[in-house]
C-alpha cells in the first residue's frame, strides 16, 4: 500500500480495505492516516490471509518488486473464485520508463531500488496466465504527470492516445 495514498479513495467508495506493505516504516506512516485495522505489515509472497478471502486485490506498481512465480499464485489464493486482480505496472516499452531504468544515477534520482524493473505486456500476461484463467493487460501509461492533467483540450492528447495503443 505504500504510504496509503489510494486507501482514502477506496474507503470513500464504501469498500472494506486491508492494505499491506512489507516495510514497517512505511506501514507506520500509512497507519497514522488510516489506522492499524486497515493497514498491516506483510509479505505478498506469503500473505497472512485465508484462501478465498477477498473479492479483489489491487496492486499499484507492486508486482515489479516481487518474484512473480511465488507472489501471483499467492494473490490468486486469497481471491474468491470470481475475484479479480486489478493492477497498474510500469511499461518497459514506455520511453520514459526505459530511460529512467537505463542508468544507476537516474535510478537513484528516481528513488528506484537496484533490482526494480518494469514489464513488457506479453511477459506480464504470460506470468499472470499461470494463475489466472482470464488476463487482460492494456498499455496506458504514455501520459507523464509533467504534461499536466489529462484533458480533452490538451494539444498532445491525440499523440498520447495513439502511443497508448502501442503494445
Helix/strand-derived category reads alpha/beta
Distance between the termini: 27 Å
Q: How many helices in DSSP terms?
A: 7
Summarize the main sheet.
Answer: 2 strands, parallel
User: Mind telling me the C-alpha Rg?
Assistant: 17 Å
Sketch the topology as an H/E string, one letter per element.
HEHEEHEHHHH
Taking pLDDT < 50 over at least 5 consecutive residues as the criterion, the unreliable ranges are none
Q: What do the pLDDT scores average to? A: 86
Strand content: 5-15%
Helix content: 25-40%
**Overall geometry:** globular
- State the strand order across the main sheet: 1-2
Number of strands: 4
Overview of the molecule:
With 167 residues, the chain is α/β, with parallel strands linked by helices. The chain has helices at residues 7-12, 24-34, 68-78, 95-101, 104-109, 121-129, 157-163; strands at residues 19-21, 39-41, 54-60, 79-88. The strands form 2 sheets. Strands 1-2 form a two-stranded parallel ribbon. Strands 3-4 form a two-stranded parallel sheet. The longest helix has 11 residues, at 24-34. The protein is globular, with a radius of gyration of 17 Å. It starts with 6 loop residues before the first helix and ends with a helix. The model has no long low-confidence stretch (mean pLDDT 86).
Amino acid at each position: 500500500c505504500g504510504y496509503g495514498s489510494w486507501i482514502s479513495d477506496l474507503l470513500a467508495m464504501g469498500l472494506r480495505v486491508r492494505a499491506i506493505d512489507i516495510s514497517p516504516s512505511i506501514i507506520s506512516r500509512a497507519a497514522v492516516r488510516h489506522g492499524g485495522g486497515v493497514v498491516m505489515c506483510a509479505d505478498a509472497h506469503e500473505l497472512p490471509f485465508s484462501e478465498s478471502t477477498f473479492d479483489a486485490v489491487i496492486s499499484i506498481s507492486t508486482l515489479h518488486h516481487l518474484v512473480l512465480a511465488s507472489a501471483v499464485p499467492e494473490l490468486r489464493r486469497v481471491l474468491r473464485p470470481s475475484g479479480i486482480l486489478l493492477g497498474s505496472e510500469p511499461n518497459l516499452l514506455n520511453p520514459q520508463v526505459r530511460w529512467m531504468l537505463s542508468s544507476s544515477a537516474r535510478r537513484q534520482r528516481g528513488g528506484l531500488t537496484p533490482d526494480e524493473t518494469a514489464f513488457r505486456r506479453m511477459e506480464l500476461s504470460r506470468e499472470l496466465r499461470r494463475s489466472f484463467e482470464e488476463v487482460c493487460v492494456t498499455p496506458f501509461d504514455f501520459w507523464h504527470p509533467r504534461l499536466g492533467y489529462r484533458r480533452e483540450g490538451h494539444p498532445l492528447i491525440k499523440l498520447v492516445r495513439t502511443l497508448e495503443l502501442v503494445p
